[in-house]
## 1
Amino acid sequence: MTSQTDQQTLTELVSDRAALLKRLESADTSPLLMVLVHLGGDPAWLGRIAPHIKGPWSFHDETPETLKAELRTAVADVLEGYAASGHPLPLTPPKELLPAMLNACTGQVVPPEYYPLALEELDLAQVDPKTVKWRKEPDAKALSDFKVLVIGAGFSGVALGIKLKQAGIEHVIIEKNDEVGGTWYENTYPGIGVDTANHFYSYSFAINDDWNHFFAKGPEIEAYIKRNADINGIRENIRFEEEVDSAVWDETALIWNVEIRRADGSTYHTSANALVSAVGQLNRPQLPNIEGLDSFGGPAFHSARWDHSVDITGKKVAMIGTGASGMQIAPSIAPVVGELTIFQRSAHWAMHNPLYFEKVSDAKKWVLKNIPFYAKWFRFQLFWSSSDTFHDKLRIDPNWGDSARSLNADNAEVRKQLEAHIAKEVNYDPELIRKATPDFPPYGKRMLRDNHWYRMLVRPNVELVDLGIDHIEPGVIVDKGGNRHEADVIVMATGFQARRLLWPMNIVGRDGATIRERWGEDDPRAHLGITVPEFPNFFVIYGPNTNLAHGGSAVFHSECQIRYIMQALRELIETGQDALEVKPEPFWDYQDKVDAAHRGMVWSHPGVTSWYKNKDGRVTANSPWRLVDYRNLTETFNPEEYAFTSRADVKAKEHTA
Ligand code: N01
């Protein structure tokens, strides 16, 4: 239950007061307090409980049991009051209380610049504020003549499909797999899961109060995407097992001509007015270039192409790579395999979170489902817990003394806590501490969740090798120290070709410009991460400089991009223009701003090597912005930053020529 609770449901909810009070025992204090103040409007409760909420996670709550019991009673009272009076529940809390509520909800100070974002994320009035509405009834022909081709039916492609359908814009989604889900369909490695809390890592327009875990495993997320595709009838627009080979902009017709390859190798052509890439940055596996890999002889596969026909039980498994994927795989397979040898090129930081392994109890699910507004406040609390509060910890303080190990005082404090965690988890083994502790500041690479990685390292059947791989021979991996490690299976958790964004597609824009020429092998750039000069009516979701590495949720980011793209499409359809193209000035101005911002962030730190940077050291993958900044940057499509063309203009030009 969220907001538009009908009278009958409310009456049922309060019909057994004792049962309701019992059920409320499973509620977390912070969102329950928000429900009370929202519905009851009494700020005194904030004053009483807020001092006990020490931070945004439920485990930061130190409210005494007696006070919690009072809170539950008050919530029951207020719900009973509404049930008895027949008054509808207010959709929004008293406006003047919102700042104090947000602060109490998160146990921190939420600055005013976050209020619009908070209201949007909370969507208390249930109007889906990120959905783009027509400003005037679109001309029927203009609308029916306009077609969008979306590449990819993953988390973002499905969301865009939903928004296009709602707007009545004709579209087709080309998906290379035989199912929706993208990343969550392709990655099936043991332990696959998300490290952003799911009640936030999900569509803002499809809040799910049924997650089984606070950090769900892959199949549950895949099922969520499928469910949303089904509920919204998205499948009928998807062409499965087809891949876009090339897309060429027709400068006369002002359309994209797209060549598509079917699974059987045959091809066909189609056209679209607008082209949207929803393939993301992490779609094409990066295989390591190691001498002799081809001669290994046994099964060797990438983490995103897990070969389930290979039984690893009791086998000698070698895993290369210790990033987000490796960190989930190794602890999941270590108890099953005979020996696990992990080849680590660099150690990664991983943070402990007490909720990481916790299941959402049925009792908690009941609260999420049935207590009005609770799920929304819970989502906002998680947004805050996982997002911009970390950003300052990633900024380089030019006067900081210990600059090789940390960036600033906050960052140093994080490092201290992480080091203490590692030491405890590896039983204070000095050799393991040395190997497992990164030599760069925290957040230099994605901060991982400790998936029992460190305690896995002390298992007798696990060896962590940090000498680097020299070469591979049949059945053996030889490290740079000359040590020979026998292996039956190699797992390559070696990441993706993020810098070669959109590869292997051939995208050809105006005047024959190709994306590969413009971006090279490793320098993708786009205005707001979305649009590219010389490539009219072309949009990228999860494009250059939009990867989130300080916190937040990729879903949040893609929703910002989708809103912007939908506004751009609206601009075309409503104004009768046929093409839009970002002007060079705003594009380059944005590039300069991104680069300048990155110079002060951890990813530019000289001690950090990662796929975030290209060979020239420019950070191409990550967003330097806080979520609130990016939301504000993309909130409103600015037509002044774009050049518009119509077919009539083209004809007139041809005529003149
Ligand atoms: O890939 P990675 P990933 N020889 O690039 C090493 C998302 N994700 O698949 O650190 C030896 O992070 C490489 O070493 P180094 C998330 O956005 C999310 O793990 O470069 N080693 C590194 O250790 C993430 O950021 C989730 O020195 C080689 C590892 O391989 C992104 O996907 C789960 C090597 C690659 O790590 C990518 O994560 C999974 C070589 N030749 C993924 N080449 C969750 O939400 C590379 N490495 C939980």
## 2
Amino acid sequence: MESNEFIDNLISKMTVEQKAAQMLQVPVSVVGMEEARKWARLGAGSFLNVLGSDMEELSRISCEESDLKIPVIFGIDAVHGHCLNPDATIFPSQLAMACSWNRKLLEKVAQVTAAEVATEGIQWTFSPILCLARDSRWGRTDETFGEDKYLAGELGAAMVKGYQGDDLSGDCSIASCAKHYIGYGESSGARDSYDTEITMRKIREQFLPPFRKATEAGCATVMISYGSIDGTPMTINKTALKDVLRDELKFDGFTVTDWDTVNYLITRQMVCRDHSDASRLAALAGNDMIMSSLEFYEAVIGEVREGRLDESVLDEAVRHILTVKYRLGLWDSPLKKGIPGSIGCSAHHEAALEAARQSVVLLKNDGFLPINLKRKIRKIAVIGPNADDIRAQYGDWTYFTHPVPGIEKEPRRPYVTLLEGVRDRLEGTGIEVTYSYGCSVNRRYYYKGNYPGIPEFMAMCYADNDHDAETYKELPFINEAVSAARGADLIILALGDNYDQTGEYNDRADLNLSGMQEALVRMLGTLHIPMITVLIASKPLTIPKVVQKSDAVICAFNGGMFSGQAIAEVIFGDINPSGRLPISFPVMTGQNPVYYDQLPGWHDGRYVDCPKNPLFAFGEGLSYTWYDYSDLKFDVKTKTLSVNVTNKGGMSGVETVQVYVHDEVSSVIKPVKTLCGFTRVELDAGQSRTVSVKLDDEAFETVLPDGTRVIEPGMFEIMAGHSSKDEDLIKVTVEL
Ligand code: NOJ
């Protein structure tokens, strides 16, 4: 960290009370404005999730009425756009955008988000999420870049650059936050916040690399996970916070705890007796800013006064915080300026549409897509609970899933659902589009339409099995859908989950389609009408039967405000789909974890009642053309691979060239293959190009039990191709 006279001077004037206050992040939604004003006068360092005039007032109080007039940093969960503001641009979820495998796209998305957040005045977003989702039962799978460390690191670093720009003090630059440090997504049984049973070696091998890339990209802050590793809460894990994050990764911004974790040390994790212990240990471990646990203030002051905690610990934390504030230019401009008028402007909406297009993954196509409108089509039936539900399309972390006090919660235009996308696309063609809701997704979501004779309570039923009396009452919806589809030339069926089946507190034990969705598929199947199924969901669901019964399957995850338009463009061939899965789809829930970079075993890795391979593998995704790979070479000196890629079909497209490595002999067991490079290449029909990908040393490294990273000399297989599946890869063996 650079030495800074201004900050040293400021710290020398601060009392213990002022230092403790500077370390606090106050949750306005919990304490209310009256108490928030009090904290602002005391010199609180930060507030979270507050918008508009409340935010401006708190900023003004800090700058004018607090003793040292230190500007406040406001934090917000702008994780796929500035989504807590209903006027803002809502991008696809991180998982959906990871399907693009496009660093530039993620950088642009972060830039747009930063501009909108900054225009609101806010200087800090709690994004990107660098946890890996290696068991999709986890409720926060949608927030991640998927299952792979390399992809997460590359896309995460791109977002950091996009948020922060070249200079943090720029009008549209905001601080990013790499979270949740570390191992959080790997919690036992995919139960959010439970213990993670992994070693420090595993952490260094699998989970640290994305954080390393983010810190190398200059990420200003890191959020500490509220989970634990091998029984040690991350909040007091000094080894991870100091030895690894500061000393090894050279992180020089400030850390922030996750929500209320200092209190959780007492109330949930039960490793501390009282606030004094919890606050002292959290400070000693290396937490600079304390989110929500306001008891920290009195407790930490007491610990210093009574000689149990050296004041220099507070100095260090405050120095980290003030340095980031300084880099943000807050003393010159306490609130960011942004670009007036840019929130939700048409250029930003265009970026959201482009992100939605690149997020679409075509998973199955029996030659059915794209739909040729020159063929005789008279009627298309759009069916399904997620066909016209913008909440399902948006997913988690929006103004209706995480409302900020005083901000409206109802979905607001503009947006395009799948139904609307299809209707808009077919306008003027004379093709009739019918729509039917079909069935509910889960018990907490229900259709509010007017169905004579169906009582309201029925809508709240939990359709858990076919014998359930309430479930039976869903049948009128299904019957109506079948009637709507009868006589159609094509069914477009939108299935998935909804926002109350995802996020914190919403892990799933069963990844089958919930409610009566499978029954809906079966019933529609009896009509023998070609069917395109679209998955609008927060995560991979177990859909082998649906895939079997569908002529084409598209995965859109939570595609944001214009996803409906993007999906329609794919269906009707206006664009060639280029998305690739950043996460594997299990055949059944018990196949999890099914990520591609497994360590080898010798009993074939197969359950007796489930195939070995996932339904869809990491990296998979079809296009309306196909690509041929040849002439793979690897230059050992420059660690650069070259491969010839040819577009063999009749349509131009974008291929994502994926590069994997396998270490033939290593002193610890290593994955069967590991992604170590990728690049997107545009190819016209029939065009060939030689593509080069330079690999990092990290591709070849082994993490030894003591944590050191070495390249062990020997033979390595380098593979390149269309997906992680063996049959999609060609390889060369080289000696290093
Ligand atoms: C808890 C979540 O784990 C974290 O991701 C989020 O940034 C904070 N709450 C603040 O809302």
